[in-house]
Design goal:
Elements (H helix, E strand, L loop, with lengths): L3 E10 L10 E2 L6 E11 L2 E8 L4 H6 L3 H15 L5 E3 L2 E3 L5 E7 L15 H14 L3 E5 L12 H17 L4 E4 L3 H10 L3 E4 L7 H10 L3 E4 L17 H18 L7 E4 L8 H9 L12 E3 L4 H5 L10 H13 L4 E4 L2 H18 L11
Length: 372
Amino acid sequence: MTARIYIRPIALGESPQSDDGEAVRLVGGLSVATRFAVIVRKTGKIVSRRVVGASGIAAALSGLPDALAEEGTRQWQALRRAHAPLVLGARTLRFDQPLVMGILNVTPDSFSDGGQFLDKPEAALDHAHAMLEAGAALIDVGGESTRPNAAAVWEGDEARRVVPVIERLAASGAAISIDSRRSTVIEAALAAGAHIVNDVSALRHDARTAEIVARSGAPVVLMHAPGNAEDLHADGDYADVVLDVFDGLRDRRDAALAAGIAREKILLDPGIGFGKTLAENLALVNALALFHALGQPLLFGASRKRMIGALSNEAPAHKRLGGSIMLAIQAAQAGAHVIRVHDVPETVQALHVWRGLRDAALTDFSQLDLSV
């Protein structure tokens, strides 16, 4: 295994004025980092780790072999580079602040809301419109549960569930993503008016999907999951979960590029809850800012997930609102671009308050009084 480098933001600041000029705005957004770990790993083991401020990055990279220094420079540029907006038909998604993606499951067995909207198109549409009115930037429509041990779904049934809902949402002008890993479902959803493909298998489940996405020009979300195309939760064996997931997402990004998908159309998702233990999920949340070094917008989805119950006396899925909002704010603080949630009104309100705090931090009201 060749050596690999990672530039991880390890301290977040209050404002760009933080730390005497050592702070940088992550991906041109509202979050600020002041300290960075420059990590080199070889054969699965960390062989060096140097902590520096922004002004020390050049020196930290200068003593490394050329290939590592070049990759480190690319990562450093990616950490500071703002992402261009996504144009989705008549709608434009801008990445200068976190966007909320509302979850709409038309399934019988999703872990949180399974059966609530299955074969109930009016109820599904009412819920989608309520999420949009509450501030969701887009709606993620799914017809297959991807929870552990969920029953397999025939692609014809999956398409039958999602296509009518997507058609009617598209007619109303909503921005829509299709949460699927099957090429026939994705193709039908795009034809029905979906704008984004959200593939939890990162294009591994179905060989045709990459071709369909590339030909359509649609943006795609590539999510990390350790298992094979059939059981995404299997094989979660990590030497270092944060760096292993980073490498896995880099590999899937590069595979998408090789398939002809434009770089500006690729979003990445670390896959919270997919083949990871509680400790591993917590490590990924704490390290989320690292993934900006891959140079793609980040999607974060931890709404109502099992890790919240594990930390709160096994609270059932419908009683995990507080934990879901905490994780959403943590993701926003790390610079996540899209936050996928069930509870849109509450999350939007929390993000409005967070945004107010970030805006206020841009003005440093402290004054240095030299007369004292």
